[in-house]
Amino acid sequence: MEGAAPGVEGSARTVFFMSTGSNAVWAVVPLKSPEAAKSRLRVGLDDRARQRLMFAMARQVVRTLKQARGIAGVAVVTASAEIAAYVELEGAAVIRQERDAGTAEACRSAVAHLSASADSLLMISGDIPLICSDAVAALVDLSRRTPLVAIVPDRRRTGTNALLCAPPAVIPPCFGADSFQRHLAAARSRGVELRIVESDALSLDIDDLEDLDELRRRLDADPTLLPVKLREALPRKEEVPAQ
Q1: pLDDT tens digits for range 45-67
Q2: Pseudo-torsion of CA 212, 236, 58, 135, nearest 10°?
Q3: What is the DSSP string of 145-183?
Q4: Helix residue ranges per DSSP H, 41-132
Q5: Range of the domain at 154
Q6: CA gap 152, 102 in Å, rounded
Q7: Residue 26 belongs to a domain with what CATH number?
Q8: Which residues contact 44 (CB under 8 A, 6 or more apart)?
């Protein structure tokens, strides 16, 4: 497939994944269609600003995963042709869905596609602006301890920003409300090794205006945390209504 990641063949709708060697860790990024993504930001951002931010964060996540040590490939799960074309230009493979069906269903689709060729899956949110390759590599290192589940909670410790499953189907993806606790329960019920990974780089996902404020606070302390293109995509504080 033109523009696909190494080890991937096929069309945008049907991709075939080939093994890339021992301890192959694939990263999976579920992305909603632009019209549906970041809906909780609608109270403060117009559609153009919201979608611009979404695409900039998705690009940052995909590029960082591509550069991270130990990641054999990056697959984006999406129902959007626009997103599929966008991430293929960044070198990601695409698993197309018929419709947006939620993060859990997107990740279940990735498990079905990749279990035969990947030894581990790292399922990770596409809206983590502070992601860095060292944080990703630390999760990859854990993948050798199969069977294992590693969970990176969000900053509120209710959601799951990254889920490492070694092997890929060791537990079912439980993304959605209270996913952190549900992933904990799933791992404990299977009796596999469980790691909770606290990560400043991965714990901040941008779901609402409070998250944007927290990102600005961190950038005030260290402006180098974000690349220039992503900083430019952030709405200025004066453009967002006070809450």
Answers
A1: 888 999 999 999 999 999 999 99
A2: -50
A3: G-SEEEEEE-TTSSSEEEEEEESTTSS----STTHHHHH
A4: 47-67, 81-89, 103-114
A5: 8-232
A6: 19
A7: 3.90.550.10
A8: 209, 212, 235, 240, 241, 243
